[in-house]
Amino acid sequence: MDGSFVGGRGIDDFEPVRADFIEAAEAYLNRIAALDEHTELDVREMHGTLADLQAGAARLSGSVQLGEAGHRSTYAAIEKLSYDELRRRLRRLPLDSYFVTFDPFDAASPPVLATIADDLADIYDDLVTGFEKRASDGLVRAIDTWELLYYSHWGRHAVHAQTALWQYLANRELD
After folding, report:
1. pLDDT tier at 96 (50, 70, 90 boundaries)?
2. How is residue 5 annotated by DSSP?
3. pLDDT above 50 (res 76)
4. 11-33 and 139-149 helices cross at what angle (nearest 10)?
């Protein structure tokens, strides 16, 4: 195989995949950056933003083998906020603490306390790391970074946060 096809897909088939992920990542970063200590997070919007981000990340697998052609990011200034600044901006969440099981296949795995603010801050940090990698080493390295961090770190935070936000919305709808 010459590398021009991955899983029966041609090079041009992956351009929308990359563009969709980068657009979702930029939307997420912009949504978090727009928050301040006086702005309450819109739970429904964040739930949708996380869904778009997660779907985009899940489709990235395999697209990195196809070279540098790709979406030009409009995310011009990457302001890497400190963890303390992110926590300050996320202070006005209508919900925060929830319980999660880290290994759903281990019946002995106890539920642990997690926070939406920590989830959103970790996702933010890992996405910015990918954009920094893109600026320094190009799109292929950025996609490698996003994919590695998705499966090793921020993907779990996205799933857990999305589940907690869904439950919060469902409880409000059913009341």
Report:
1. confident
2. E
3. no
4. 70
Q: Could you write out the DSSP letters of every residue in 56-90?
A: HHHHHTTGGGG-S--PPP---------HHHHHHHT
| pTM as predicted | 0.81
Which residues, including other chains, have CB under 8 Å from residue 140's CB and lie 6 or more apart?
64, 67, 68
Q: Beta-carbon neighbour count of residue 15 at 10 Å? A: 15
What contacts 157, CB < 8 A, 6 or more positions away? 118, 119, 120, 122, 123
Q: Could you tell me which residues are beta bridge partners of residue 5?
A: 10
> pLDDT of 108-117, one tens digit each?
989 999 999 9
- Length reported for the chain: 175
